[in-house]
Design a protein that fits this description.
- This protein is an all-alpha fold and about 160 residues long.
- The longest helix is centred in the middle third of the chain and has 21 residues.
Length: about 160
């Protein structure tokens, strides 16, 4: 393999993640490997591990980008004239998003990380923001006493997760 021009660690990181995204879009999650990423960026597989410690870290970076895009889509949804209308808009945006790029979305469903690995802080924060957006649309649809029950249930779910 010919020697490549040097790239900064930030440039390599971006190249790796963009290559991983392209591979998943073309071949699905099963086609993703350090060797395939290395072919696309024209570096050795060892370079991938110099930037990311594991392939799981690359996948988590893909997940972060995907969840950021979903969050942006949901945040852009304006409230409807009724809580039900807003919920329908949110649900429609979610379905459109997940069906718009099924192979990439499947990464969130297919990725099985090492159970001993600790998820980065951004992961919980990103999921919390997504759930908060949905909860904000749900609250007006429930009477006050049901809202309290829902918040308590949400707290219990977060602690269990």
């Amino acid at each position: 393999m010919a020697r490549r021009p040097q790239h900064s660690p930030e440039q390599l990181r971006l190249m790796i993640v963009e290559a991983a995204e392209r591979i998943v879009r073309e071949d699905g999650y099963g086609g993703l490997s350090a060797r395939e990423i290395a072919k696309v960026i024209r570096y050795s597989p060892g370079t991938i591990y110099n930037v990311f410690h594991t392939i799981d870290e690359v996948v988590l970076e893909l997940e972060q980008r995907l969840l950021q895009r979903l969050e942006a889509e949901l945040v852009a949804i304006e409230g409807g004239p009724t809580p039900e209308a807003e919920l329908r808009r949110l649900a429609g945006a979610y379905v459109d998003f997940t069906h718009g790029d099924r192979r990439l979305w499947s990464v969130l469903l297919e990725h099985r990380r090492n159970v001993k690995a600790i998820l980065p802080d951004w992961y919980d924060d990103r999921l919390r923001r997504l759930l908060d957006r949905i909860e904000a649309a749900l609250i007006p649809a429930f009477p006050v006493d049901r809202q309290r029950e829902r918040r308590q249930s949400a707290c219990l779910l977060r602690k269990a997760g």
